[in-house]
């Protein structure tokens, strides 16, 4: 095969271009359905949300919907994973600022609670559908399990089955979000909930309180994510406002 002359680019096959364009189109439509479903589910709840609700909000046809999802439940499962994963990605840079596994767990829990509270659509969605389950092999649980294992190895956290430790964290997060969205809870409710979870994980009283009330680093928005850049800023403002009360 003759060499390509210097300064000349090899032309890209037309098929590769079509494949790339088609993939981009699918990604845009999938996001459109996600955004519409998030709005509808938060307003009506998953049980009351139909395909018609989603396609009307997205302004697409029923046939278009079925090209991507077989049923609303499949869409909700995918959306729950997408939203939860994005929240984890927003919290992860702040979590990694500490070498202490217990502090990482506390920071991650607090950031997730404040992010969900700062965006009622997201918070309401997570409360109604719950956190994606461990058995789905979700990558979003990897950072939490990493820090829980590290904490157990270091003796900072009690040795216990990983499923139990993850349940303590996830149920505390969802319960705190629910309480802060649905009831009149004190401004420091998130920190109080995290302190209780840390105690259940084996951290003693004063240390649990210290970890639950440390200065919280700001979350980092995910570029092009569903939650948008404003969510991170709102979460930080709400936390600071709560601390000032």
List the helices and strands and how they pair.
Elements: H1 14-44, H2 51-58, H3 62-68, H4 72-95, H5 101-118, H6 120-129, H7 142-154, H8 162-182, H9 189-200, H10 205-212, H11 229-244
Helix pairs in contact: 1-2, 1-6, 4-5, 4-6, 5-6, 5-7, 5-8, 5-9, 5-11, 6-8, 8-9, 9-10
Keyphrases for this structure?
globular, 11 helices, about 0% strand, about 240 residues, mainly alpha, Tetracycline Repressor, domain 2
Care to describe what's here?
With 245 residues, the protein is mainly alpha-helical. The protein has a single domain, classed as Tetracycline Repressor, domain 2, CATH 1.10.357.10. Helix content is 69%, strand content 0%. The chain contains eleven helices and no strands. Helix 4 crosses helix 5, helix 5 packs antiparallel against helix 9 and helix 9 crosses helix 10.
> Helices and strands, in N-to-C order?
HHHHHHHHHHH
Total strands: the figure is 0
CATH class: Mainly Alpha
What number is the mean pLDDT?
80
Question: What do we call the CATH homologous superfamily?
Answer: Tetracycline Repressor, domain 2
Instruction: Using the CA coordinates, give the radius of gyration.
Output: 21 Å
What percent of the residues sit in helical stretches (DSSP H or I)? Answer: 55-70%
- Helical stretch count? 11
CATH topology grouping: Tetracycline Repressor, domain 2
pLDDT < 50 runs, ≥5 residues: 229-245
The coarse overall form would be globular
Largest sheet entry: none
């Amino acid at each position: 095969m003759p060499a390509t002359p210097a300064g000349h680019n090899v032309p890209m096959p037309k098929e590769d271009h079509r494949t790339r364009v088609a993939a981009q189109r699918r990604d845009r439509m999938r996001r459109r359905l996600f955004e519409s479903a998030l709005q509808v589910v938060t307003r009506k709840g998953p049980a009351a949300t139909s395909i018609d609700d989603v396609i009307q909000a997205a302004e697409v046809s029923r046939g278009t919907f079925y090209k991507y999802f077989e049923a609303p439940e499949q869409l909700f499962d995918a959306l729950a994973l997408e939203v939860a994963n994005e929240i984890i990605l927003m919290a992860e840079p702040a979590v990694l600022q500490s070498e202490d596994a217990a502090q990482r767990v506390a920071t991650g829990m607090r950031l997730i609670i404040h992010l969900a509270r700062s965006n009622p659509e997201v918070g309401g969605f997570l409360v109604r559908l719950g956190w994606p389950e461990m058995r789905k092999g979700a990558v979003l649980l990897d950072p939490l399990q990493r820090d829980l294992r590290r904490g157990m190895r270091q003796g900072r956290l009690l040795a216990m089955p990983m499923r139990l430790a993850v349940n303590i964290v996830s149920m505390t997060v969802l319960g705190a979000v629910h309480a802060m969205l649905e009831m009149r809870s004190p401004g420091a409710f998130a920190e109080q909930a995290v302190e209780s979870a840390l105690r259940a994980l084996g951290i003693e009283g004063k240390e649990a309180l210290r970890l639950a009330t440390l200065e919280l680093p700001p979350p980092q928005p995910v570029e092009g994510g569903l939650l948008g850049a404003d969510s991170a800023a709102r979460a930080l403002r709400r936390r600071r406002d709560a601390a000032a009360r």
